[in-house]
Amino acid sequence: MKIKKLPETELELMLALWEADKSVQRNYFNTKFSDKGWSDSTILTMLSRLQEKGFITSEKSGNKNIYSPAISKEEYMQVENSSFLSRLHKGSIKHFVASLADNDELSSSDIEELENMLKQLKEK
């Protein structure tokens, strides 16, 4: 299955499902997103779309549907990160980090973390 980029609202549902770290009923999403004012039908529509796209599965338990992720957060993040780098930074991590540095987005602790991460990667 080719993983496609999700619209922001569907991604919000997926993030909530991954955060739950277990299968959930629809009312989990109603509770999780009560501040957004999404109706039941809106949530059901998004869940249906996610199922059609292969991101989630659902199974009946009595009269309720139980939703589970069909792909992991890590699988999705890999595709999303690659797409982001390709679209905005010509596939270059160097260009991405340079843009952060140019805009003063990197603190000294961020730079230290990056240095430590690079050191660990070199030792592999």
What attributes characterize this protein structure?
124 residues; three-stranded antiparallel sheet
Structure description:
The chain has 124 residues and is mainly alpha-helical. It folds into 2 domains: 8-69, Orthogonal Bundle (Arc Repressor Mutant, subunit A); 73-123, Penicillinase repressor fold. It has 6 helices and 3 strands. The protein has helices at 8-20, 26-32, 40-52, 73-89, 93-102, 108-123, and strands at residues 24-25, 56-61, 64-69. The chain has a 3-stranded antiparallel sheet with strand order 1-3-2. Strand 2 (56-61) and strand 3 form a beta hairpin.
Give a nutshell description of this structure.
It contains 6 helices and 3 strands; from the N terminus they run αβααββααα. The chain is mainly alpha-helical.
Separate helix tally: 6
Q: What is the succession of H and E elements?
A: HEHHEEHHH
Largest sheet: 3 strands, antiparallel
So, CATH architecture of the largest domain? Orthogonal Bundle
- Average pLDDT confidence is 88
Measured distance between first and last alpha carbons: 30 Å
Q: What Rg, in angstroms, do the CA atoms define?
A: 19 Å
Number of self-contained structural domains: 2
What is the number of E strands? 3
Global shape: elongated
CATH homology-level superfamily of the largest domain: Winged helix-like DNA-binding domain superfamily/Winged helix DNA-binding domain
CATH class of the largest domain: Mainly Alpha
